[in-house]
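FORM 12-B: Structure-to-Sequence Request
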């Protein structure tokens, strides 16, 4: 080993040691092993003689059951530090409980999270009590998005960041919960982007429903499942399948980078892509000649579209709707939503087309007597009684002479 290589090796080892001994900062993601569960707190060994504490409530499921035990590994975010013990505060709800104005001023200077008790609403925001001092949280700073009902926060204990601290006769405090949520979101977004690629299958949560699709929170980043990508069947509105807060699995279809600072990418997602394509077995399920039941879903002048199964539609041409007479529009014999028996005439899986007929086998083809269309011969030969063109001219001249 050369002197240069030896130096590079030692430098690399030194950098590893420095990285290993670096104390996590607020917003960093950390992973450690649960070493103790005491009361409302869970203690986590983060390695390197560093310990973290996270509130028991954050690790409970919707039924209030604690899903971890001593020895389990967990991943969380650093939300602050207890200056007295050096213990890291983990999670999104954990914040220091301050005592006195000096502690509040120190928290403002260090920008560390502070726990506050929401005591009421006021014009334009919320009243928050922290360390015996009244603080104000503007409505725009209570959450990431618009909050319609501020009253729902009253009585809760939440983490805030002090954004304004002014001494005087009374301490003037302005706080923000949104600042902490955005910091957490940025950390989550960085983790999500590391896993984000076309074709990736990811877990997400429905954040909002619109007429055109569902927005899915992937972890600090949102993507859109267009209504056409929700399922193989026809969906009128996403709320028919999804609800806000629901956990879903999605596939990444496209990633388009933008110049928007807050939304640097547009992500197209699909739930349908993870389902089995019903057309893959259409010939086996709907063989030619088979009679099946379907529902009328669309009427056009040329025929009726009939849903045979979710994602499987067939077309009954207008000529295949009635056996004993001609009609000018399918709505003369069908209504949207009608349940009908149809016969499979043709199947083309590649073009995703199925030809159907509502005619019964007993009715057969349209008979000549039932067909009101004049036969071809009626157009080729003039009817008796009119004569030829020459006969007509002669009759006209004769009438003129008689006058």
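FORM 12-B RESPONSE
SEQUENCE OUT:
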């Amino acid at each position: 080993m050369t002197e240069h290589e030896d130096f590079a090796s030692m430098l690399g080892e030194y950098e590893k040691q420095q990285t290993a001994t670096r104390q996590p900062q607020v917003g960093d993601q950390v992973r450690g092993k649960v070493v103790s569960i005491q009361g409302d707190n869970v203690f986590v060994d983060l390695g390197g003689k560093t310990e973290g504490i996270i509130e028991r409530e954050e690790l409970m499921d919707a039924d209030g059951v604690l899903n971890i035990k001593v020895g389990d590994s967990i991943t969380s975010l650093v939300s602050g530090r207890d200056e007295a013990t050096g213990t890291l505060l983990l999670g999104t709800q954990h914040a220091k409980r301050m005592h006195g104005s000096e502690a509040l001023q120190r928290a403002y200077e260090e920008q560390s999270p502070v726990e506050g008790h929401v005591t009421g609403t006021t014009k334009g925001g919320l009243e928050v009590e922290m360390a015996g001092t009244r603080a104000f949280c503007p409505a725009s700073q209570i959450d990431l998005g618009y909050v319609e009902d501020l009253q729902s926060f009253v009585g809760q204990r939440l983490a805030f960041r002090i954004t304004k601290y002014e001494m005087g006769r009374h301490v003037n405090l302005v706080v923000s919960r949104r600042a902490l949520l955005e910091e957490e979101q940025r950390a989550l977004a960085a983790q999500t982007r590391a896993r984000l690629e076309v074709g990736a299958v990811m877990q997400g949560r429905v954040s909002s429903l619109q007429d055109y699709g569902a927005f899915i929170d992937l972890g600090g980043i949102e993507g859109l499942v267009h209504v056409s990508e929700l399922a193989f069947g026809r969906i009128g509105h996403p709320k028919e399948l999804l609800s806000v807060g629901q956990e879903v699995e999605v596939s990444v279809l496209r990633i388009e980078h933008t110049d928007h600072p807050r939304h640097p990418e547009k992500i197209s997602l699909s739930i349908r892509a993870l389902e089995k394509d019903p057309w893959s077995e259409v010939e086996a399920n709907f063989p030619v000649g088979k009679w099946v039941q379907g529902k009328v879903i669309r009427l056009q002048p040329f025929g009726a579209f009939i849903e045979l199964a979710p994602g499987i539609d067939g077309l009954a041409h207008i000529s295949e709707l009635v056996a004993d007479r001609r009609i000018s529009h399918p709505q003369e014999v069908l209504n949207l939503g009608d349940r009908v028996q149809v016969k499979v005439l043709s199947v083309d899986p590649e073009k995703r087309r199925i030809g159907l007929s509502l005619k019964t086998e007993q009715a057969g083809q349209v008979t000549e007597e039932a067909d009101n269309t004049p036969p071809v011969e009626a157009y080729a030969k003039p009817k008796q009684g009119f004569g030829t063109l020459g006969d007509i001219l002669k009759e006209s001249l004769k009438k003129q002479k008689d006058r």
